[in-house]
Design goal:
With 275 residues, this protein is of the alpha/beta class. The chain has two domains: 225 residues, Spore Coat Polysaccharide Biosynthesis Protein SpsA, Chain A; 47 residues, no CATH class. The protein is built from nine helices and 14 strands. Strand 1, helix 1 and strand 2 form a beta-alpha-beta unit.
């Protein structure tokens, strides 16, 4: 059994998968015998999906390809934990690169703390490769909950430190302690804060691991192939925060409604998600 599953979900993004997987193999050779690389494909019948399958099954010795077509959503990444064979799981977006040494240090950390219930995240590397975002501050900004921030002194110190939340392009935990996404989530977005709060409610901490630096491709000149429905995101926020706070009247849940009404979205439609 592999120690660590590095898994990703994909939807019509062969290029992202190719470069992420090849970067894992090229820049982390010292741990390839301890990890599996898992790809869950949410559009396996497309030309991109067919090429991802061919690539993984033909060239990636420690790779595994799993098609998933029951529904389409970024939350298919939760299936990474369901199919992972490793004792520990690192879930990344399919267009994320890790700095050299990150996987070896992550495995070493798990060897030291084998029963941790914590959610491990890492600093996002800016495209200039010089600056980093260690976490999100929990506040609204446009269609997102969370604003990028940097705890520079803690990052410089180098020890793991608690954070309120972070972008979910990379996160890791022991498989048996995965808290899961709400099964009603659909579409794209809304998991930040929900996931971290759920971990804390179940006895874990959310830690920034300074060594676990990751680079994320944000630019998409060809546009994402998956549908981006903002009302699906609003619905996810309401479903998730209602689960966390156990009360639709909770001020945090109501802040979702108020924020998106202020952003110009239809009040009647938003309030229908509270019913």
């Amino acid at each position: 059994m592999p120690v660590l599953t590095v898994g990703m979900a994909t939807y019509d993004d062969y290029d992202g998968v190719y470069f992420s997987v090849q970067a894992l193999r090229m820049y982390h050779p010292e741990v390839m015998d301890q990890i599996e690389i898992l790809v869950v494909d949410n559009k396996p019948d497309s030309p991109h999906g067919e090429e991802v399958k061919r690539f993984i099954e033909s060239y990636v010795e420690n790779g595994r390809y799993v098609p998933f077509t029951e529904w389409e959503s970024s939350f298919v990444k939760g299936k990474v934990f369901e199919h992972a064979q490793g004792e520990y799981v690192l879930c990344i977006d399919c267009h994320v690169l890790l700095v050299p040494g990150a996987l070896a240090k992550l495995i070493s950390y798990y060897n030291t703390f084998p029963n941790t219930r914590d959610l491990l995240q890492g600093p996002l590397v800016h495209d200039d490769l010089q600056n980093f975002y260690t976490h999100f501050e929990p506040k609204w900004q446009e269609q997102m909950f969370g604003t990028w921030a940097t705890a520079q002194p803690s990052l410089d110190k180098g020890d793991p430190f608690e954070i309120p939340m972070q972008g979910c392009g990379l996160f890791s935990c022991k498989k048996e302690h995965w808290v899961g996404f709400n099964p009603a989530f659909r579409g794209f977005g809304g998991e930040e804060w929900y996931l971290q709060e759920k971990v804390r409610k179940q006895g874990g901490k959310v830690l920034c691991m300074p060594f676990l630096k990751w680079l994320h491709r944000f630019g998409r000149p060809d546009k994402p192939k998956y549908p981006l429905d903002m009302y699906a995101r609003i619905r996810n926020f309401i479903i998730g925060w209602t689960e966390i706070y156990e009360n639709k009247e909770h001020e945090a849940v109501q802040s979702i409604v108020n924020h998106f009404i202020e952003q110009g979205y239809e009040e009647e439609k938003i309030r229908s998600y509270l019913e």
